[in-house]
Every structure is written in structure tokens, then in C-alpha cells.
Amino acid sequence: MNVNESSMNENTSSPAPHGAAPDRTSVLIVGGSIVGVSAALFLAARGVTPILVERHTGISPRLRAKLFYPRTMEAYRAVGAADDIYAIERDRPRSEFAAVVESLAGAEIRRWRLPAAEDHSAVSPCQGAMVKQGDAERVLRTRAAADGADLRFGHRFVDWEQNAHRVTARVLDDRSVPYTVEADYLLAADGSASSIRERLGIAQRGDLTLAHSMELAFNADLRPVLEGRALALAFADQPGRPFISWTTEQDTGAVSVGYDPATTDPDTAFTPDRCQAVVSAALGLPASAFRITGARPWQMSAWVAGTYREGRVFLVGDAAHVCPPVGGFGANTGIQDAWNLTAKLVSVLRGHAGAGLLDRYEPERRPVAELTVRQSVQRLAGAREQVSGGGQLLSEAAVAGGYRYPAPVVDAVGSSAGTPLPWADEPDRWRAEPGTRLPHRPLEAAAGSSTLDLVRGGRHALLTGRQGWSWAEAARALDPDHAVLDTVVLTPQALAPGASFTDRCGIGEDGAVLVRPDGVVCWRAAHAARAPHAVLKDVLQQALLQ
User: Fold this and answer.
1) HSE on the CB side for 82, CA within 13 Å?
2) Distance set, CA 18 to CA 23, 151, 153, 249 (Å)
3) Is 218 left (phi over 0), alpha (psi -120 to 50) or beta?
4) What is the pTM of this model?
5) Does the pLDDT of residue 480 top 90, yes or no?
6) Averaged pLDDT, 499-517
7) CA distance 435 to 263
8) Residue 77 and residue 487: Cα distance in Å, rounded?
């Protein structure tokens, strides 16, 4: 096993003064919103100290994501941030439903439970979370800094160069003093208008102007209107189909109303009086009950970047893909980009995997983004009461948590009767097929513990049935120090009463499942092998590209 712990860069230095030697880091992250700061935490929690630069010092007050699916919360659970996010959710009014309303203060025409608010305990140790993005970002900033991430807010990324060995970036600090950062890799988390993507000449494939809306931000005490309703968002059955959203504190919000740019000039059509009238009608409140704090036109888009990588530069989050807000997939998809890529970076930087492992990032994540964008567009069509096209409409659970990556290692079990596998399905239908997320089974060790908790520290995990000792012995012989691979034999005593690991994974009691550091199954064997050491060695070499 090729283990080289000394190759990990753990530089935690402060910005170098002007004229001094460049700062050095393994990973430079540009952009400090939800995806960038998540990437910083995912790296720092595993011992890689990134430098993150973000030109803004504060957290954006704009309404953004506030729906985080269980698979996202599983990633945060793995790095110790989930409980802090849930604590914020518990301190806010319940928000489980969406509705079509005559107005927010008026009658509800219909309502439905948001998918993230459903009970996911059968398939995950985590429930979805309903918190505003700004609150989640505060938790992630605190956690990332505590784990050693070098977070530089108020620092502006200017430009960069790259060669076969490194990226060299030019940055202005919070006093506009220039300095240089040298990094092994650069993560572009700089949003949908990414200057890094633009400079690389990477095209956006899709619809850049799917729809036009005017967003009208307001301050208002919505608690009397929302009390006892557990609403998270609403659509008003009015001209322009106003979309009403608000913070979890229920004291600020926004009304987004559609318009046709062919017939409407937003600069002249949305006068102060009209903005007041639109918000008043949508909320069902008099003008004296709210105050408009801003108005901005924005274009709804649906696109995926033509490529996710150029040399040592990787696109993540909105720099790589943008989808309509229907379904709440955007931030979740970006966070999973970071979860996938940072796991690969940690393996490579530790010397556990070959650099070619990073070539698998785009083939895994880009199809997920394409699927998610298609599903979001179909939901938008349905919200507009049009006939949706473009294929089967999947559940939100399948889109956000049930996707499958291409499997570079052959499945030693195989799909039943050779049936082709879908690229996304309900999470409870998967049986640990390579490329799918490890199935959750509750453990006896502690209340709420899960098989997903057995994958930790940026290492692979080999999980076997109760008779899988030959696989366990082979793993320990290959990696006696557990630097790369943790091994767990799941006896009946290890599992919660009534939980079966082997049945859920489609293997026998002498079978095994190999799981990547990001919780994705990369190989499984139905039963013991005649030469388990040789088999497992070959599988690990394929998984790590050693």
C-alpha cells in the first residue's frame, strides 16, 4: 500500500506581507458562499488546510437556499456540523409545507409537504434541514476555522496562472495589498458568473434565459400570518405567479414575479408604486405592514458547464451548473460537488491515490448536474401548469439522494438478470450497487448511529457480513496501520435489532462491500473468495488508481 502522509500540506500561515515569499497551500478555494466554505470544512476536517479567499466580509442577506436534503446533512454529519445546523432549525418556527394561496394572508388553494421535511429515518441517519443558507454558512465558517482552514474574507482573487506542477494566484488582501498564493489545486466556487470559468473559456450548455423575474425584497413581521401553518414558501395565484419566500425568522422575505422582457422594461415598469402593489397583493397585507428594501431583475437559468476541469482548476457549485429554484436542488448539488471532489483531493494529497483519481470528478458529477437541471426544468413547467416533457419525473429523494455514479470497478455481484441500472432511483431501492451511496443500517453502538458512520477520516472502509473474516484479514494484511482502509465485520451484535446489513447490500454473510471516503460503494463481493488478498489488492489499486 502506497502511503505517504508527509505529502499532505498543512500550511496554516497568515497572508504573506507584500514582497515576501508566496503563501503555500495544497488547495486554494475562490468563493466563500455555501459551496466554497463547505469545501474548506470537508478538507480541513480531514487534515488538509486550504486557503479560502472571498471578497465579501459578511454573509449575503439575500434569500437563497433554505432546504438541505438528507444526503447533504450526511456530509455535514461526517465533519461534525450537522448537529449545529439542526439546533438552529429547532430554534425556528416549523416550516414543512409549500402552498398555492390566494395571498399569503388569504386562503390556501392547495398545500403539500416539502420532500426534505418527510421522514427519512428508513434510509438515512439524517433528516432534511430547513434553515436559511446564511445560518448554515455561519456554522460552516466556525467549524472550518476551528479545524484549521485559512479563511480570508475581504480578500479579492485577481488572477492566476497554472502549469503542470502548481497554480499561482494573485490576491488583494483586505487593505488592497497584493500577495501571491501557490497551490497544488484551485477550486472555483465563485458563483454562476464565475470569472474563472469565463477566463478558461468554458461554455455554459443549456438555457441561460429560461425566465425573467423581478425580485422585490421586503421587511415585515410575518409571524401573525404564518402562525400555526408551518409554511416554508408559497405561490400566489395572481398575475405573474408571484413566488413568496421568507427567512426562517419570518421577519424578511421576497416576492419574485415573472415578466416578459419582450413587452416589459423592468426599469420603467416596476415603479415604486407598482412594486408596493405587487407585494401588497402577494402578501395580502396593507402597505403599512411591510417595507420594500430592494428590487432587482434576475434571469432564471438552466445550464451545465461544458467541462468541470482545466488542468489543476476545478469548477464546483454554481460555477459548474445552475438550475431553477423549484425543488431546492441547487445548493445541495453544489455541496455534493465539494463532498465528492474534496474526498478525492484528500486521497491524492495523502499519497493514497494516484493523481488520475481526480479525472473521475467530472464523469461522476457532471451527469448528476445534467439530471438535476432536467428535473428542475420539468418541475418549473409543472409549476407553470404546462405539460412537462423531457422524460420521467423523479421524486426529490431520487434526484437529491438516489443518483448513481459510473463504477470503474466491476461489480462482483452484478445486477439481477443483467437488468441495466438507472442513473437515479429511490434511495431504498438500491442494494449497494457500485456507484451508489452505502445503504444506511442502524447500529447498536449508540442511538442514531449508522453504517455511514463507519466511513470516516477520509479513508476507505471495508464492511463485511458476520462471516467475512477472510476479507477482514486480507484488508489488515494490506494495510496493517489502517492508513487507507478501515475494516469492520458487522456481526448481529453490531447492528440494531432487526437490521440486516447483508440483505440490504445484496451480499451473503461472507461477502464484503468496499466504500469510498465519500460514502459511495466502489465494489462488493457476494461471498468469500479463494484468494481474498489478491482480489482485494487488485480492487484497491483500481479504486485508488495506484
Assistant:
1) 19
2) 11, 19, 18, 43
3) beta
4) 0.91
5) yes
6) 95
7) 48
8) 21
